């Protein structure tokens, strides 16, 4: 169990608990104010925070401290496509906005890959975004079926799915990203720091089925797959694997499955 | 030590141009609005800064692609004390 499952999931996977998608989860004034403050200042906050961190000799240490602080408000976890679909089945209202990270880092607003979900009929996210004309103009309301189809495409395109809190444990958004395009995953470039947990799973390759084509390696953003010229097969380095499941999507021979991280002795404490 | 200096009078709309952001192999740049987002008001007057400067290798590809020559990569040799 990751620490959020223990704290906010009653021992079950925290992002599969319906109550964590209810606005009532925003218990304090500070938490209620967080989503508003975040989106009002997002680009300025991120650009200046990263610049400040980059101004010191050892940025990795400061990034680590900053990300630890983010646990209270905005923290995430990587998850495979089938778990995304379980979340969509609990969602009553869903909107899609252009990814704010890609906008800030590449100026690209056509990439509609940021999905805000809420498990009440309240339009919580749409109401918030509607107050800002630049975000509101680009917002779509989507159905569960549309969202599932979109995520299928993101998966085939090799984008990592993640789920994010907005005033933990209130969960509000699902992302599709790569370390280069994500303001949070950028921490991986600073000594492997990150404000998100690895997935509840870890990939494993069936050596009988692996044909050694190495397609899986092209989909792994974490460098977790190696190729052995002795066996002419690929294998997953489990301590490095984040459990996103993209290698499974890439495999042409269905050789890859996801195992429960909690069932593997050394990985139980590797989040 | 590497720094990247922007001449704001030459860089008008980095989000529309994107050239340095697309070319940088390390993803050093980030855009931010000088005019804050507020209820009823869009964020605007976008500028760019080298937020991830520690990743910069000093390759100067950004200088080459900038259509208005708005940025300069400055490399200061560190003296050995």
Report on the structure:
The complex is a heterodimer of chains A (271) and B (81). Chain A has 271 residues and is α+β, with helices and mostly antiparallel strands. Chain A is built from ten helices and eleven strands. Chain A has helices at residues 3-8, 29-54, 59-70, 81-90, 100-106, 124-129, 133-136, 144-156, 215-219, 246-250, and strands at 76-78, 93-97, 114-118, 140-141, 160-165, 171-177, 196-197, 201-205, 225-228, 233-236, 256-260. In chain A, strands 4-2-3-6-5-1-7 form a seven-stranded mixed beta sheet. In chain A, strands 8-11 form a two-stranded antiparallel sheet. A two-stranded antiparallel sheet of chain A has the order 9-10. In chain A, β5 and β6 (171-177) form a beta hairpin. The mean pLDDT of chain A is 95. Chain B is of the alpha+beta class. Chain B has a single domain, classed as 2-Layer Sandwich (Alpha-Beta Plaits). Chain B has helices at 14-17, 19-23, 61-65, and strands at residues 2-6, 30-35, 44-49, 71-75. Chain B has a two-stranded antiparallel ribbon with strand order 1-4. In chain B, strands 2-3 form a two-stranded antiparallel ribbon. In chain B, a hairpin with an 8-residue loop joins β2 and β3. Chains A and B meet through α2, α5 and α7 of A and α1 and β2 of B.
């Amino acid at each position: 169990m990751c620490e959020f499952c223990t704290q906010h999931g009653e021992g079950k996977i925290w992002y599969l608990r319906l109550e964590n998608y209810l606005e009532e989860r925003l218990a304090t004034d500070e938490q209620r104010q967080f989503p508003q403050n975040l989106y009002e200042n997002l680009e300025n906050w991120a650009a200046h925070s990263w610049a400040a961190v980059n101004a010191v000799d050892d940025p990795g240490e400061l990034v680590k401290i900053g990300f630890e602080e983010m646990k209270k408000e905005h923290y995430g976890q990587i998850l495979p496509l089938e778990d995304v679909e379980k979340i969509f089945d609990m969602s009553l209202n869903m909107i899609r906005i252009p990814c704010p990270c890609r906008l800030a880092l590449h100026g690209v607003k056509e990439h509609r890959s940021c999905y805000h979900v809420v498990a009440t009929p309240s339009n919580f996210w749409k109401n918030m975004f509607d107050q800002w004309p630049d975000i509101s103009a680009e917002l779509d309301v989507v159905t569960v079926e549309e969202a599932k189809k979109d995520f299928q495409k993101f998966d085939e395109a090799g984008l990592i799915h993640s789920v994010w809190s907005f005033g933990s444990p209130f969960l509000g958004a699902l992302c599709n990203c790569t370390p280069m395009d994500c303001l949070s995953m950028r921490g991986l470039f600073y000594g492997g720091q990150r404000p998100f947990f690895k997935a509840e799973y870890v990939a494993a390759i069936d050596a009988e089925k692996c044909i050694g084509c190495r397609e899986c390696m092209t989909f792994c953003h974490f460098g977790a797959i190696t190729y052995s010229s002795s066996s002419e097969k690929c294998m997953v380095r489990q301590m490095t694997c984040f459990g996103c499941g993209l290698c499974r999507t890439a495999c042409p021979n269905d050789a890859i499955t996801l195992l429960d991280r909690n069932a593997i002795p050394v990985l139980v404490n590797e989040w | 030590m590497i720094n990247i200096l922007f001449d704001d009078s030459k860089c008008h709309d980095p989000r529309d141009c994107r050239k340095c952001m697309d070319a940088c192999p390390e993803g050093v740049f980030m855009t931010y609005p000088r005019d804050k987002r507020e209820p009823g008001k869009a964020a605007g007057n976008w500028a760019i800064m080298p937020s991830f400067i520690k990743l910069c290798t000093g390759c100067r590809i950004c200088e080459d692609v900038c259509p208005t020559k708005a940025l300069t990569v400055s490399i200061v040799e560190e003296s050995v004390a």
